[in-house]
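Dear colleague,

Following up on yesterday's call, I've attached the two folding results inline so they're easy to grep. Please treat them as preliminary; we haven't cross-checked anything against experimental data yet. The first protein's sequence and structure tokens come first.
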Amino acid sequence: MLSSRDRPFLVFRRSWPNRYTLPVLLGSMEKEGLTDSFSVFMAKTIEEVLQAAGSGEGILCFSFMTPHVGQVKEELQRLKNILGGKVLFIAGGPHATGDPEGAHGLGFDFVFRGEAEETFPLFLRQYLANRIPSAPIIQGGAPVALEKYPPFSLRYQLYPPLEISRGCLYACTFCQTPRIFGRSLRHRHPENVADFLRQTLPRGYLQTFFRSPNALAYGARSLQNFDPGAIEGLFMACRESGVQGIHFGCYPSEVRPDWVNPEVLGLIKKYCRNKTVVLGAQSGSDRLLAKLRRGHTTEQNFLASQWIRQAGFRPHVDFVFGFPEESLEDRRLSLRLMERMIGEHGAKIHAHTYLPLPGTPLFEKGPTILDADTKNVLRYWQGKKILDGWWEEQAVMTRSILEWKDQGWILSSREI
């Protein structure tokens, strides 16, 4: 084994948005036996990056989302000016996948597109052998089997919510998920979940949260394949592992309204500790839902919220404003549905502003600007503590994304 002095460094630029990504990448390194080949650091600031890199040679890794392009570009330019040519700068994550050419244009030497549990360790081996690829964009291969890699990093004690499903059966026009991970579902087997949970118990992790684009699709393979038995099997395996609390159907394992029913809510009530269920309604306009290819109706939104309340949970309902081609009437319909959910179901609303994301069908269409009346209603409910979310901050992010696109920092005009 090389001493730390002789090993190249591998620095991950750690941030709140990539808190779920880095543990998985580190876990893939651990599985492939690569952690002792590098001096590994996780840096929360530029100063920590510079301290970790010193005057040595190595790799600096960024994983980021589109709203953070400006900050990443600024940091990258500063670091390249200081660290020079002895460092390779690599990028991955949702933005790099949606706009690989644009990410390369920001100044990265290599850009990873798609899932990286396999391509990232392979790249590290190539680096160690002085055989790095000639092409700057590294394309992910076949969809990764979730059970092949750990969902966290034991060595660095990073335990994000455990990913139980990957992919999405739908094709919402504003969302990157099905375009990054595919439109088929992959699930982590209950026993595999339980095995990893048992590894975290000695470290004090007695509660488990999950990560899924639609928690209620766990075990399903198609739109007609709802599987409550698979969900109960997951809960039973978690209990048998020794965890004291299961949290399912809450962030970051939200549910779609068209998959909600009293049977599955009864299972969540029986086995889980969460008091809320997060519901992705997105809009109260059937016209807009159809244009977005959501695959459900406003009636299903309302009925799901009602069933959640009747099962003893508080609905926490996502709504998005500012979609391209969104009309004032679409917004009024959303506000009316939100008001009904609040009044009849005791719901709490989680409000968003639409973010244009490269690689999605809506990216080239301009967002609509929220009118004063809509903003006033959202702020009123926010003051009453029955609405939360970063909708005002996201409005600023949307303007920044459009500016970066105009400046050529974001290039993608094609669907992933």
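Below is the second protein, in the same order (sequence, then structure):
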Amino acid sequence: MLLRTAAGADLLILDDLGSEFNSSFLISTLYSLLNNRLGAKLPTIVTTNITDGALLEKLYTEKSPAASPLLSPSSLWATIFGRKRQKKRKWDRSQREFLFRKGISNMGIVVIGAVFVDIKGYPLSTYIPGGRNAGRIEQVHGGVSRNVAEDIANVELRPTFVGLVDDTGMGQDVINKLDNHKVNTRYIQKVPDGMGTWLAIFDNDGDVHAAISKRPDTTPLTTLLEEKGDEIFKDCDAIAIELDLEKDTVKQVLRYAKKYNKKVFAAVSNMSIAMERRDYLQQIDCFVCNQQEAGLLFSDDYEHLAPSRMAQVLARNVHSANMTSMVVTMGGQGAVYAKHTGECGVVPAKKVDVIDTTGAGDAFFAGTVIGPTYGKNLAQSCEIGSRLAASVICITENVCPRFRPLEFGLDVPVVD
């Protein structure tokens, strides 16, 4: 309750920064707090008696080595002390041409999918399965595609989100938050019951113990794409989609991708639905799922396989299924990737203190979309995804904190 009050306060003052006992939990909580306030454009004042910036930086990295690869100095201190804001100006033709030469369009990556309201319960003491558990409950904006759009925006890229929200105040809240994170929300439609609900109970390790969800009716997206499809896809950088959307919607997206020669990246929320569209995978540049979902896709059990062996098996399956490429996440063991050519590999997971695993898979998917879109190979893209996923796991948010593109070796302009 105290953190929620601080996150929404009109003005927050953090007094005497650097005098507290530092831990990975404190740093992740601080980062989550400041990230929320930055997104909501709320002012924060920080005071400290430490005048040596290098010493202050040292306090927040060396004392918490598990967090330091994620909360890098450039991200952490830019968040705490604020970024230099450039004066907003209209882009003339030469500036727009510069953005295209540097590899990012006005539409950016187009993300298409559903919006959910996530209701999450956390135990205050040892979790008792089947028993009564005292705890706290949080309600946040969620949904794979909505999370992915915000993750991409938090790497200072400017994606476009195509989706539906409720015609209520909560639906407007979703739009406002995405707007604050510099997501293009022009193609979000308000409709009755436009958002789904995801209810989850977490154990003491931060893992989901039980969950149930109600999917929204995304049929209106088909009409939206019929009317605005050319406008949306013609100048985008790439397309990210949930494969288990309405079948007509997926077919439309793939048709526009072929028309304008755009890369398509796909994730899945419900593998049983995606299995019905298995033939669509041949038209997708990269498909991302977890180990269990991969077993369903290829009618096999991969739970016992080590990452190195999983990568070899995946390479054979990708080739035989005539897919372009595929990535399979393996939780704490990292992820494996494979291409139609037979190239495959393993990307280890980052070692961090787990607080909440919600959204980690979405952040990983965002990395695998960002990388190939802006010049990275599949292995490098999985590294980006691994880092983004780890940054989500060690904070209470379901999206990654803010990064700069150069932190991932991305040579794309940052437009304020």
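For the second protein, one point worth flagging: The chain has a mean pLDDT of 82.

Best wishes,
A.L.
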